[in-house]
Amino acid sequence: MSSSEKPKLVSSPQAFEESFKKAEKMLGPVFEDLKRSPQKGEIKISDMRYIMVRTESISIELHEELKKNFGDAGAWRVAYRLGKALGKRDAKNFHDRFDLEDPIMKLSLGPVHFAHVGWAFVEILPESNPQPNEDYFLVYNHPYSFEADAFLDEGIECDAPVCHMNAGYSCGWCEISFGIDLAAEEITCRGMGHDRCTFVMAHPKHIKRLRDEYIKKHNP
Question: What's the domain count of the chain?
């Protein structure tokens, strides 16, 4: 991949493009090594076991079941926490696999992995300023989020964002990458009729202020 080419699986400001191109080069061979063994009920990618789950099942049906016990708001919180746990675990695995130390490089593997396993495409916006302290700030879109697509495909009208696992997963991955507490929140969602699914991520002490400032400035 020449230096003039842009990453194919992530959209980002120019300052991050080299890191994402490296991440694509690193993860490409990993996902090319796919072995399906239905006689054993196994799918393995580079000897790591994966599972395939229909998006409607893991988003809509899971939410309906969680809502029975936790209510609507509680169900979304559980979905976020589930996504965050998955993101943290996957980040640890791939950081160790490639023996990474640099936080930006650790982050860069996340969106590429995200694309390969079918969660969403990631578009990092220019306002982003990821750094290993409380000034961390990330603004990003998830075009083709599997959660939004599931609700849209089923014709379900939503009055609140639905991509909580997307938010949680990205947050968990970045927490591990930078070694700091983070929170993520979806501020626009295609499931609500918006043009895009947009998220903000920041330290928990600052996320509400930074979210409100971003919304006021950009009116998304």
Answer: 1
